[in-house]
Design a protein that fits this description.
By secondary structure, this protein is an alpha+beta fold. It is built from eight helices and 25 strands. The radius of gyration is 23 Å and the shape is globular.
Length: 392
């Protein structure tokens, strides 16, 4: 894979997948960072081709350093753990009487003291104080099972939790020869994204796509998002070594956990850290349904005692990311595709043993795997973290 930075030349506009018609809704929804379909569309437009391509990202980048979304299994600087795992470690744990709906993953609780100071808890949950994106060096520490200090998690002097500012932009269209807004267009407002100075988006592309991009020159401007805004696209090979090191550590964690299954099953416990939106979709009774964790990962504590237990114990996630793309149609050229809802990047999955995604497989029974295209566009990218002792 070859890495590039996409540096905005102005603000960027990325509408979300919610239906929007001026005059019916006053605000157009927005999303950032952009999803893989948006990046792929920009590259295909640049190359004037419909050829398949493989992407990694998008991530954020500053001074040739990758930044990944903050893991959502932390409250401030304190890690969360599944109720059942905490009870195993401490038979007198205060949660021993807790019950939960077994149709859903096990609840997560804060590690450490059971009755934290209220002011301390409020401070730890304040997003204004904590980084929402971590540099690759800190992510590497997490993958190695090391503890991050509170200083690592907290924003430093002058640092913002997220490296962009949202600017609201009003839009309207006037009637010809009059000073009144057209009823058909109405008045609406949408949010523009202004990345802070020195920040860029970072993506990786496959060899064939890289060669085609290189044919366009060294400094390339690419239209990205709405309203004709552009980014400067440049190679950034130092990112390749950073990503490769993360992948190697992640794979070593996965292999070590698998090897522990026979000798010490507790050492096989792992965390799957989602670093790009995860699309987990399944057709049920001809209706496509999305959820926050993979359908092939069954719960360790199923609601029916006759069901075989799976590997998934718990999930740390938040509100879904709506994603929409378009189908190629022979008659109309392009039609909207059904909307899907992705698990947000930063989601973390607690598993008794590591497990692969079905969409990771390019082929199934010798035939192309239709859902593998999500992985080709950068979705559902996971890094594996060993579950060690309590991280205070």
């Amino acid at each position: 894979m070859h890495w590039y930075t996409l540096t905005p030349l102005d603000v960027l506009l990325f509408r979300d997948a919610k239906p929007f018609t001026p005059g019916e809704r006053a605000w157009a929804g927005s999303v950032f960072p952009p999803n893989g379909h948006t990046i792929a569309g920009a590259i295909r437009s640049l190359l004037q081709t419909d050829n398949a391509l493989t992407l990694k990202g998008p991530f954020l980048c500053k001074e040739e350093t990758l930044y990944l979304p903050r893991p959502l299994n932390y409250v401030g600087s304190q890690r969360l753990s599944p109720l059942t795992w905490l009870q195993e470690r401490d038979s007198e744990h205060s949660s021993k009487q807790m019950q939960w709906d077994r149709r859903y993953p096990t609840p997560l609780l804060r590690e450490g003291e059971s009755n934290p100071d209220k002011d301390d808890l409020k401070a730890q949950d304040d997003r204004q104080d904590y980084r929402q994106y971590l540099p690759v060096q800190l992510v590497q520490q997490l993958l190695k099972g090391q503890t991050l200090s509170q200083m690592n998690w907290k924003c430093q002097d002058g640092e913002s939790p997220q490296p962009w500012t949202i600017e609201s932009r009003p839009h309207n269209t006037l009637k010809t020869g009059e000073r009144q807004v057209k009823d058909s267009d109405g008045y609406f407002v949408e949010n523009a994204i202004r990345l802070h100075r020195g920040w860029s988006l970072a993506i990786a592309v496959d060899e064939k796509t890289h060669q085609a991009i290189q044919g366009k020159g060294d400094l390339i401007t690419v239209r990205l998002g709405g309203e004709g805004h552009h980014v400067l696209m440049q190679t950034c090979e130092p990112l390749n070594a950073q990503w490769k090191e993360l992948q190697e550590t992640s794979k070593a964690n996965y292999d070590k956990a698998e090897a522990s299954l026979q000798s010490n099953p507790n050492q096989a416990r792992s965390l799957a850290y989602l670093v790009t939106p995860g699309v987990f979709e399944r057709n049920r009774d001809k209706v496509a349904t999305c959820r926050a964790w993979p359908w092939e990962w069954n719960l360790t504590h199923p609601p029916n005692p006759n069901q075989s237990p799976g590997s998934l114990v718990s999930v740390a996630t938040e509100r879904p990311v709506p994603i929409s793309c378009r189908f190629r149609d022979a008659s109309s050229g392009s039609i909207p595709a059904p909307q899907v809802f992705a698990a947000p990047p930063g989601s973390v999955y607690y598993l008794e043993r590591p497990a692969q995604l079905f969409q990771d497989q390019p082929t199934v029974n010798g035939k192309p795997n239709k859902v593998h295209h999500w992985r080709q566009l950068g979705y559902s990218e996971m890094l594996w973290i060993p579950y060690g002792a309590s991280q205070q």
